[in-house]
């Protein structure tokens, strides 16, 4: 056995040991969130996967489905500093990133001082993000991609880790501004929040209308989350999984696909950032489940939340009643 092979085996053993030691903590974290958020296990898992992968999340659902509660709970169990902004049409970029104020010193001289905005947090919740104007929405672009903001020509680094968890109401469209494609692409996943089933809603009803309400305990801290995010990037991915990711994403592009429905119905398909996100997502899911490597099932199961906000359908698709989910299902069929 060569030295290179020995080093590879040693690294694999170390990764396996780290996954085993982290697995129990992640299950405790999963359970802690589930004690507060009822009947949304898929939503919880997809959001946890996004955070473990270091990404941002767009939560889409009707009012009253505990989207805000989920973000607050995640901040608590991860031990992160969290802030919330309520997006409205009159919200300005300075209300998010901060602004410079002119101070007069004791000697009579004046200087500008930067006053940080709520974006300087480890978890920023942007509630009803599509109610903010395009100018204000763009204030988040640099922060989400580069982990810093620029004010007055000066760059300021954001706390680490940094995650934006935004909510969007799919029903009320009056007074809203659709998110541009460039910003949608910055979100690691678009997580659909559906109604809970009957038994989960029964549990929620009993748990939230009594004298006391359960609070999730702190399980992680910021340094442990950063360490888990680093571990995600070291998890090995098999060649079949890599090929499935590349095939699935590239088949979603009208100019390179072999699928007739994609050519006819897709206006524009997912870019390379979708491949990167899906690769990290399957690794993070393997870590969350305590597995040593991702599988093809992970690719199929996570394709929709990773791809649906990175694709747009044309008028012909809407006229025929075809949705993005239908296209993603076709893309996943050869790998299911």
From TrEMBL:
Domain of life here? Answer: Bacteria
Q: Where in this chain does the record put each ChlI/MoxR AAA lid domain?
A: 263-330
Q: Fetch the Pfam families from UniProt.
A: AAA_3, AAA_lid_2
Q: What residues does the ATPase AAA-3 domain cover?
A: 56-189
Read off the InterPro entries from this record: ATPase_AAA-3, CbbQ/NirQ/NorQ/GpvN, ChlI/MoxR_AAA_lid, P-loop_NTPase
Task: Provide the protein name.
Answer: AAA family ATPase
Task: Specify the species.
Answer: Fodinicurvata halophila
Q: What is the lineage of its organism?
A: Bacteria, Pseudomonadati, Pseudomonadota, Alphaproteobacteria, Rhodospirillales
